[in-house]
Amino acid sequence: MKAIRRFTVRPVLPEPLRPLSDLARNLRWSWHAETRDLFQSVDPEAWAAAESDPVRILGRVRPARLAELAGDRRFLRRLTAVADDLDDYLTGDRWYQAQADGMPVAVAYFSPEFGITAALPQYSGGLGILAGDHLKAASDLGVPLIGVGLLYRHGYFRQTLSRDGWQQEHYPVLDPNELPLTQLKEADGAPARLSLALPGGRALHARIWLAQVGRVPLLLLDSDVEENDLGERGVTDRLYGGGSEHRLLQEMLLGIGGVRAVRTYCRLTGHPRPEVFHTNEGHAGFLGLERIAELCADGLDFDPALQAVRGGTVFTTHTPVPAGIDRFDRELVARHFGADAELPGIEVDRVLRLGMETYPGGEPNLFNMAVMGLRLAQRANGVSLLHGQVSREMFAGLWPGFDAEEVPITSVTNGVHAPTWVAPEVLRLGARQVGPARAEDALTVGGSERWDSVAEIADQEIWELRRTLREQLVLEVRERLRASWRQRGAGNAELGWIEGVLDADVLTIGFARRVPSYKRLTLMLRDRDRLMELLLHPERPIQIVVAGKAHPADDSGKRLVQELVRFADDPRVRHRVVFLPDYGMAMAQKLYPGCDVWLNNPLRPLEACGTSGMKAALNGCLNLSVLDGWWNEWFQPDFGWAIPTADGAGTDPDRRDDIEAAALYDLLEQRITPRFYERGRAGLPDRWIQMVRQTLTLLGPKVLAGRMVREYVERLYVPAAQAHRALTADAARELAEWKARVRAAWPQVSVDHVETTATTATAELGTTVGLRVRVGLGELTPDDVEVQAVSGRVDAADRITDATVVPLKPAGAPDLEGRLVYEGPLALDRTGPYGYTVRILPAHRLLASGAEPGLVAMPSQDVAEGAGVLLR
């Protein structure tokens, strides 16, 4: 019989056990081993049945057991110690509190998904896991962050397989009352609510749920409330589902509603109002519009309000391809803004101009969320050095006249939250080596370039640890594989072979991620005979564990999954290669530590960062990857292998896959398996163990989310907070008026004449050449601009590479035509083909960079030809 109504019945804890409720409601338990151990000891069987979720276990444990624990003095001592530790964690000073004055009093961090724990399934893949790790690391460091997202009633889909290996999607209903959440409430106890205006006089209402992530509050907006009609109730139904209007409403709720939720939270709790707003990908871009509307309501005009909002906004892009960005038809966006809908005080045309692709190569009828994010943020970044470069090229159209290298998009390479992803056995080994406090500090704050203490761990201990983790993975895989085959319709009598799947002494390769085509799930199947030889080698076999989900609308991705599953179903190799459905955080935490090699073979440069290999590395797993994302930045032969790429412009895609697959097989056959299986005098794989040691020593400190968040604070949050404070109402008006004046006058700005003291086409290293430049500024003054000499080596097309920029200084008053002369030295500090040019940029104390306005004046061809010669 099916229930017609559902209730959540909460346990009444005996008074001595009341701290258990606080411990369960703070998600620090998801990365704090002592807290998890405490809950497991409440009832080990219930803990396993509750899938390691403290909130669920407290709802299942028998009252008699609670009464027993309330009288158990040993348990109560443990409870007190863990509760005191949490209190110290929440209230004590941490890294952030030890920094100099001037730090942001608060930062709001917006993301469409957050991967905190499997017990709160509000994530689909890397973007969400990164956002969750960002919050956890901010908590560990004491950064005053407020997270903002949506609460999806179905989360992301659960994946199973049909008998023939086709992906099946299931969307379980999540009850917020059974999740580690509390409702944000007004002082009178009523639920805190917010609303957005919709066309036709309708409204979208939402309530606010609070997840406490250590020290960081995470606000999640939920539209499934009685005040909404059925359509509006479904706005937060599932992650990345629905059509264009559904997605637009989600993103309006996240951005506009999210700012209102932050304001409500700060009003109710006294939390400082954020000075910095960080947009994690374009989905939350509308937050800037809401903040502009706030300032307009306080008396600012739109343009000054835009400048003020930009100063305090950071935008992070995560996609290396335009297809990965949300884009909406302009008419759809126009319908949801203006007098008859949301933000009636802002002209619709102003809204549209922020997101329209009005640049060469853009589609003028499309509203681009990433473009809006960049136009609303004074600071932007990609998520690895290579991705920063790709992003500068991809968005260069927004800054016409500038080389891609000067597009104002920097990079902060992603990191991962070590306490979440490092196996307890690895943590215990580190704590034995350097002590618990130093081990925790090394994993959270980071800062050390090397973890030298790893060098003191005996080879035998490292190898025993690696075998233990591999053995645990074998057992986990068999259990999950058996469950998967039952879901596919197999009976127990058919599954005896599963007891022989994988071997704890065989080289184990892991591959797990989302399944878009560019990640090439099936590259390993390119030459199946050769792969079978590797899997079944009599002396040096390999085994492969694969997991991944295709987007529900991506049939090509589902076909890749099916192709891999069918290969793994082959009785000849099914003991050596497995596909595990329903990849998520709980599986990943078992998978990374148990693998010896982590495989990543995307089409370069389409992997923005790719953090799964980082998590594997922190457990002593070696990376085997294409030089893309973070691996391109930090790869060394000391601790991993690079798969050569055939990414020349003229390479046929099929041929490229053939070449790169062959390179992968060669590495496995000739370098990786021999190193794993060769034994030294003590019967240990000495060279392999040394690579594990180097992975931990050299890569460990770099891949930490603590390092990442410290970079965000120092390089982006602090400058954004300073800009926010500097852009008072008067300063914002001044900047807006200056930009308008400069844009209007810029057509008259010119480089009229360039001359040098160089008399020949060659010069000696160390020579200084004098430059003299005559410029026209029209109605602008020297205070409005900077005249620069740009010099460096030149390529065959006379393009300057590795440029050095030197400002030139005005020499004397304007001539009779109003022209000014600028002079300066040009130091020839590099040998070989060398060249220079001159340009004029706008200059103002409140700009983050000279490229910010997107204006530049260069010499005309005639002027350039008369400027002397390139020095070769």
Keywords, separated by commas or semicolons:
29 helices, alpha/beta, six-stranded parallel beta sheet, 872 residues, glycosyltransferase, globular, allosteric enzyme, Pyridoxal_P_attach_site, transferase, ten-stranded mixed beta sheet
Question: Would you mind describing this structure in some detail?
Answer:
Helices cover 38% and strands 17% of the residues. The strands form six sheets. Strands 1, 2, 5, 6, 7, 8, 9, 10, 13 and 14 form a ten-stranded mixed beta sheet that branches. A six-stranded parallel beta sheet has the order 17-16-15-18-19-20, with helices on both faces. The longest helix has 29 residues.
Present the secondary structure layout.
Layout: H1 19-25, H2 33-42, H3 44-49, H4 54-60, H5 63-70, H6 73-91, E1 107-110, H7 126-141, E2 145-150, E3 158-161, E4 167-170, E5 182-183, E6 193-197, E7 203-213, E8 216-222, H8 230-233, H9 244-269, E9 276-280, H10 287-297, H11 302-311, E10 313-316, E11 327-329, H12 330-335, H13 348-355, E12 366-368, H14 369-375, E13 379-382, H15 385-394, E14 410-411, H16 418-421, H17 424-434, H18 436-444, H19 459-487, E15 507-512, H20 528-535, E16 542-547, H21 555-568, E17 577-580, H22 585-594, E18 597-600, H23 612-617, E19 622-626, H24 629-634, E20 640-643, H25 653-677, H26 686-699, H27 705-726, H28 729-745, E21 750-756, E22 768-776, E23 785-794, E24 800-807, E25 809-810, E26 820-827, E27 834-842, H29 861-865
Parallel strand pairs: 1-2, 1-9, 2-8, 9-10, 10-13, 13-14, 15-16, 15-18, 16-17, 18-19, 19-20
Antiparallel strand pairs: 3-4, 5-7, 6-7, 7-8, 11-12, 21-22, 22-26, 23-24, 23-27, 25-26
